[in-house]
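Exam revision sheet. Question 4 asks you to relate a sequence to its structure. Input first:
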Amino acid sequence: MLEPANNNELPPIPGKRYFTIGEVSELCSVKPHVLRYWEQEFEQLSPVKRRGNRRYYQRQDVLVIRQIRSLLYDQGFTIGGARGRLEGSEAREDVSQSQQLIKQLRTELEDVMKILRR
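Answer key, structure tokens:
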């Protein structure tokens, strides 16, 4: 689970539909080769692959990557432990992930309101 304290270190997720591997790398502070490795290890990660085998991640993928990053780097889980934790958390709704999404949407809506008030 992505801890709110760790979330503040990462940049907010822009309101786009698809992200390239480079963008996800910056959003999650993880190198692209690590993302490709995690795709092999975690079945929850399955970016859309288009022409030339280019990967396009969706917002949900970015949230899962942030969760994996938190489990591995902040909480000290092994790959197997993180995999098991993610599989267990799929059965129940992840409240902190929902809260993160709501917080992000609120920030985006506030930005839109600022633009409209000008």
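Marking note for examiners. The chain has six helices and two strands.
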